[in-house]
Amino acid sequence: MADSVYRKHLFDIPDNLIYLDGNSLGPLPTAVTARVDNVMSEQWGKKLIKGWNECQWMQQPSHVGDRVAKLIGATPSSVIMGDTLSIKVFQALSAALQLNPDRRVILSDSGNFPSDLYMAQGLIDTLNSDYSLKVVAPEDVVDAIDDTVAVVMLTQVDYRTGRLHDLNTITQKTHQVGAISVWDLAHSAGALPVNLTQSQCDFAVGCTYKYLNGGPGAPAFIYTRPDLISLIAPALAGWLGHDAPFAFEPNYRPAASIDRLRVGTPPVLQMSALDAALDVWDTVDMQQLRMDSINLCELFIEQVEHRCPELTLVSPRNAAQRGSQVSFAFEQGYAVMQALIARGVIGDFRAPNIMRFGFTPLYINKVDVVAAVNILEEIMLTQVWKEPQYQVVSAVT
Amino acid sequence: MADSVYRKHLFDIPDNLIYLDGNSLGPLPTAVTARVDNVMSEQWGKKLIKGWNECQWMQQPSHVGDRVAKLIGATPSSVIMGDTLSIKVFQALSAALQLNPDRRVILSDSGNFPSDLYMAQGLIDTLNSDYSLKVVAPEDVVDAIDDTVAVVMLTQVDYRTGRLHDLNTITQKTHQVGAISVWDLAHSAGALPVNLTQSQCDFAVGCTYKYLNGGPGAPAFIYTRPDLISLIAPALAGWLGHDAPFAFEPNYRPAASIDRLRVGTPPVLQMSALDAALDVWDTVDMQQLRMDSINLCELFIEQVEHRCPELTLVSPRNAAQRGSQVSFAFEQGYAVMQALIARGVIGDFRAPNIMRFGFTPLYINKVDVVAAVNILEEIMLTQVWKEPQYQVVSAVT
User: Fold this and answer.
1) What is the pLDDT of residue A1?
2) B94–A contact, CB cutoff 8 A
3) Which residues lie closer than 8 Å to A253 by C-beta, 6 or more apart?
4) Residue B377 has pLDDT above 90, yes or no
5) Which of B8, B23, B32, B40 to mutate to test the interface with A (most CBs of A within 10 A)?
6) Residue B263: which of A51, A87, A218 has the nearest Cβ?
7) A180-184 and B11-12 as β-strands: parallel, antiparallel, unpaired?
8) pLDDT above 90 (res A253)
9) Which domains does chain B have, with CATH numbers?
10) For residue range A159-171, what is the model confidence (pLDDT) as tens digits?
11) What is the DSSP code string of B278-300?
12) pTM score of the predicted model
């Protein structure tokens, strides 16, 4: 039997904190601080403009992209880093529509992250054509995939409930009807095994500040199936996606490679932080990670249902249909979460009534799970969450 | 008479380096390293997800935007930070076209930075309409502004030659014919006085890693004239531009303020680096900066023309028509620049034959200018640039 993937010593996490929010913002990997310091003082400070060449800043988006590719079952040169996830959704979606010019329906579901839906709405309004965004319930997605659909755009793991779409099956059905798939892996990358090559999916996008621990505002990624790259005319035709950016030609001519999905100057400090954060993953077996994640989630569900019966599980009970988070509904969930946070158990809250708990086996173990439930049970029994200081609403991403 | 703005002690610049490339990447302000360290170790490391609220990460794009606004003559809440300059060009241009729906011509000039032209081309292709991008020579811009033009999109200072467009006059003419103005201030912000409010210009965009010293890949800015903000339907309709991002509504509803031009999660490390870098500007008088800049440029031109007659000035001779850089053409300019760099004088090269020298009076003075010309003269006299090690081409941004 393989070892657990637990390696908390590679992170700087405060003592006495049980951090169940790595699905929102991963903690600080120990290697990051020294790396970013070096980039500031030794690279930017001493090399200045020469850093772009001598320190390979210009190659970071593809170098780091190749590292992310390994974690999502993608081949080298099929993933590029940059911008934010919302921008990457726009790039993928506009490219996908080009590949299916005779259809007008973008299919998504109500479990998608709102920004993905918003970006689709913004693109449709910009195209000023007869495109429409069709949003169905997650359980109705498969049936809604028909030959009117141009693009199926889904987030694999529901940000509120943790419900997991079957990426392979849905992609197959998508292709059977002649549609293009765009997968958002925000809550998949670093959370569970993904094999983009095997799935044959067309486009995938994701962020790196959640399970990949790249830091607040870390760059996003975009994957394109290698045979599609040359067919895309980038909507966001930035100079670093040009075939010869430093020739400063008057006309846009996209790079032959995945580089054509680069846009502007890469954020070198954030790219370097992410690059250092990815060191943690070098020896992680994704199957083992998934097994550890399921064990933690199962233990949490079992304990909470047993000891906190007021809370209602809103995540799928079947582990195979769930990502690496568990959500419980409770009408006063916001106040309960504030009381948890005050006691060192960090999860988060999603309106109207969902408490989310992310399980990240790199730095969370069974002892943490039991300790977290002990505190939750105490909060529920004492009803301490009714105290006024826990009622004040503030935004948490 | 006011003091010079020279304050090199606020920067970490290597000894014996004469850095004439702050128009490409500004040097490291001393305050940045400690600030970013603190954000990593104390904020991300200790606050984790709570950093978004407790450390005001979420407010950074507007907080830093207000600081940039002061430097370009804009009112508070008219500038927002994020993404890259290319993305901001796309946002401004797509918004500008909406404001002028009956016209189909985007006017620009051949002195514009290629990425601005590329982004326009990408937008036009995406719109799949009968828009056209009309590119004229810089000196023909004013005459080409007529009532067929929807948007006049220009970079104020030519990245190769330093030629300075008259922002106020061109904006006036633009408005006289009923067109919308989009100004790229990449080589203006922190280089010369700009008064966006007085000019009444409609949109402005820029980067912060040049004269503002925000670091490699620092976030870009976008300005919108306050009365236009509510009229824009953002093409890039990201969740952080939503009126209530944390309500997670299914439909996009833009924020009432300039926040509607936010897109995705802000890059907190880069925003923090930029915020610290802006401290340098707190007491800088922009008129004095301009005077110092002109004095440095004039001295450089006079000395080079006198001592290096093989080089041809390609920047305007009249200081009023020039930004804060000076360019000379020489057929072997690439090799000469490499020889300069090897001797500690850092400028850069733009194809086919232009050597660029940026003058940044915050950390460059007359002694530096004379020393740089001494080295340039020696290189020209000895023809050391003919040595093979200076002929190898490599990309420099």
Assistant:
1) 44
2) yes
3) A242, A243, A244
4) yes
5) B40
6) A87
7) unpaired
8) yes
9) 8-28+285-390 (3.90.1150.10), 56-281 (3.40.640.10)
10) 999 999 999 999 9
11) GGGGTT--HHHHHHHHHHHHHHH
12) 0.97
Select from B281, B285, B293 the least CA-distant residue to B322.
Answer: B293
Distance CA A125, CA B235 (A): 7
- Give pLDDT, residue B132: 97
Q: Where are the alpha helices (DSSP H) in A39-84?
A: 45-47, 51-54, 60-71
Q: B33 contacts in A (CB within 8 Å)?
A: 37, 40-41, 45
CB nearest to B53's CB, from A252, A351, A395 = A395
Q: How large is the average pLDDT for residues B124-130?
A: 90
- Mean of per-residue pLDDT scores for chain B: 96
At residue B2, does pLDDT exceed 70?
no
Q: Is A277 in the B-facing interface, judged by CB distances under 8 Å? A: no
Q: What confidence score (pLDDT) does residue B397 get? A: 43
User: A251 and B117: CB-CB below 8 Å?
Assistant: yes
**pLDDT of amino acid B261:** 98
Distance from C-alpha of B37 to C-alpha of B50, rounded to nearest angstrom: 18
Best interface-test mutation with A: which of B88, B104, B364, B397 has the largest number of A CBs within 10 A?
B397
Is B119 touching A (CB cutoff 8 A)? yes
Amino acid at A95: A
Output the furthest CA–CA distance in chain B (Å, rounded): 69
**Which 213-272 residues of chain B touch chain A by CB within 8 A?**
215-220, 233-240, 242, 245-252, 263-271
